């Protein structure tokens, strides 16, 4: 016989983890994966579903009016990174933001001009 | 704005470039101090689903509904130009956060392994990790007051490091020293990039 408290944890009970309430309990974002330092930019497209976006979606959208990285947005809205990823996935699906991969830097495909710019910048700090 | 959308080939705005650098090493070795010395510290909350690898560390037997684990961390940001920003991520010290390492190291330019000569073994896992993933890294010895001084050559032997791999001494509290650490890493990444693809 199940214990009394177990019945509260079935699917019908809805999300049990608080930060994920704003994502309707989803823990994975939709669409293609994106990096922590991928750049998010708002597209200025019209929001097709007025009132359909929550305040957290709107905050994230507002921050991406200036091209911003995923981590900077997460830090600014003070929501867990996993939650912000899901909100960004939603906004991308609605065509409200584009998410661009960071400059490819791994191994042999490194962009030397960018590295030299970084060196110059660091020396000038 | 006159940008005609963001279609490829259209008049896209100048690319925003973000570069990710990792800072690894044992607990208390001075990672946060070094990041704070050279960059703007920003808080980050992560609420990640428990992965299989971390689930084997956290005994979740009988707790079938525990789905997330909370990690609070900081990262550093250095704005070099409006469109060129360095991000410094300290990798969490405890082994149960290996899932964060994989997330952080994806697409990383390179890494700094910060070591304390009094507890040199603490940085072995980080060195192994970056070697296996072929992420370029340097070793920076945070020189603590009162710690016995060793020659860099002794340290290189103790860590069994490639002779081409830079090792430097640093003071994680000093901005100039932290800058030098980053400059050494970038120079190393540039020299690695100059090597032929197959050795």
Report on the structure:
The complex is a heterodimer of chains A (125) and B (199). With 125 residues, chain A is mostly helical. Chain A has a single domain (17-123), classed as Arc Repressor Mutant, subunit A (Orthogonal Bundle). Chain A is built from four helices and three strands; from the N terminus they run E-H-E-H-H-E-H. Chain A has a three-stranded antiparallel beta sheet. Mean pLDDT of chain A is 81; it is low at 1-6. In chain B, 33% of the residues are buried. Chain B has a seven-stranded mixed beta sheet, with helices on both faces. Chain B is of the alpha/beta class and 199 residues long. Helices cover 30% and strands 28% of the residues of chain B. Chain B has one domain (17-194): Rossmann fold (3-Layer(aba) Sandwich). Chain B has six helices and seven strands, in the order βαβαββαβαβαβα. Chain B is globular. Chains A and B meet through helix 2, helix 3 and helix 4 of A and strand 1, strand 2, strand 3, strand 4 and helix 6 of B.
């Amino acid at each position: 016989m199940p214990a009394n408290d177990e019945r509260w944890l079935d699917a019908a009970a809805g999300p049990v983890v608080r930060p994920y309430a704003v994502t309707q309990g989803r823990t994975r974002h939709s669409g293609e994966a994106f990096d922590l330092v991928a750049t998010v930019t708002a597209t200025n497209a019209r929001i097709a579903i007025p009132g359909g976006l929550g305040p957290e979606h709107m905050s994230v959208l507002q921050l991406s009016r200036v091209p911003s990285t995923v981590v900077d947005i997460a830090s600014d809205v003070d929501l867990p990174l996993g939650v912000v990823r899901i909100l960004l996935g939603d906004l991308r699906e609605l065509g409200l933001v584009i998410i661009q991969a960071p400059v490819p830097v791994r191994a042999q495909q490194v962009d030397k001009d960018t590295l030299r710019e970084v060196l110059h910048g660091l020396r000038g700090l | 704005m006159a940008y005609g959308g963001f279609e490829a080939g259209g008049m896209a705005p100048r690319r925003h470039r973000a570069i990710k650098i990792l800072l690894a090493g044992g607990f208390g070795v001075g990672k946060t101090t070094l990041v704070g010395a050279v960059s703007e510290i920003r808080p980050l909350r992560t609420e990640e689903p428990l992965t299989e690898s971390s689930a084997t560390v956290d005994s979740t037997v009988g707790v079938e509904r525990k789905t997330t684990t909370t990690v609070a961390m900081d990262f550093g940001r250095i704005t070099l130009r409006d469109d060129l920003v360095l991000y410094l991520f300290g990798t969490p010290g405890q082994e149960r956060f290996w899932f964060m390492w994989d997330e952080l190291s994806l697409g990383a330019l390179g890494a700094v392994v910060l070591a304390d000569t009094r507890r040199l073994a603490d940085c072995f896992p980080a060195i192994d990790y970056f070697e296996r993933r072929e992420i370029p890294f340097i070793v920076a010895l945070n020189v603590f007051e009162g710690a016995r001084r060793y020659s860099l050559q002794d340290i290189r032997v103790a860590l069994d490091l490639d002779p081409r791999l830079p090792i430097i001494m640093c003071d994680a509290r000093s901005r100039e020293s932290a800058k030098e650490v980053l400059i050494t890493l970038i120079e190393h990444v540039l020299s690695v990039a100059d090597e032929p693809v197959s050795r």
